[in-house]
Amino acid sequence: MTKNRRTIAELLQLNMPDLEDIKYTCEGKLTAIDTTYGWWYKACYDCKGAVKAYGDTFWCARCGKNDWSPVPWYKLNVIVEDESISTNFIIFGKLAQNIIRVPTQQLAVANNSDKFLLPPIIKSIIGQTYIFEVSINSLKSNLDARSFKVSKFLSTGLDINGKYKEHQKDVQSIYGETDEITIACESQTVIHDEMGSNIMLQST
Ligand SMILES: [Zn+2]
Description:
Number of helices: 5
Mean pLDDT: 78
Radius of gyration: 18 Å
Order of helices and strands: HHEEEEEEHHHEEEEEE
Distance between the termini: 15 Å
Low-confidence stretches: 166-172, 178-204
Number of domains: 1
GO molecular function: DNA binding; zinc ion binding
Family: Belongs to the replication factor A protein 1 family.
Strand content: 35-45%
Pfam families: Rep_fac-A_C
Domain Replication factor A C-terminal: 25-142
Helix content: 10-25%
Shape: globular
Bound molecules: zinc ion
CATH architecture: Beta Barrel
Keywords: DNA-binding, Metal-binding, Zinc, Zinc-finger
């Protein structure tokens, strides 16, 4: 999680050819989640693309399927800031579920659930510092908008005040695009520089 490390300002300055198919890492604090467009969307059961209403039914704008009902799917528009600037990253579906630990459907259909109001359990990821692995969000048609999609993120164990949490040396959670949460074992050591400002994980 140190490969192609950039600050957010550097990410925003990259040219399109530098962005395609390349994953960058970036460390920053998740300061807010923008729910202007909701915290979940109706996704195609198959490709997880957004579905469009078509009369009483739906069809997938991406693969054209309409034989099964759409499923609620996380799309967290998170605001991340570092010492350079702040920007938006998108955390989709299973990846969001891995850190929230509750399937979208369960929260989306809960009583009093509001698509534009964050459930408390989602708010718990706000205020923490993470290392994000991001790439350009290819689902976005307007690539100039520089929308970054998170493919992996790692809690650095810092709380909102920049202090280390207890037990952070024993367990670090890495959230990837898999069905399971990967818990890094004790063979990983947390290292930070003398200023205490930079952390990386290193396998021993
Ligand atoms: Zn589809």
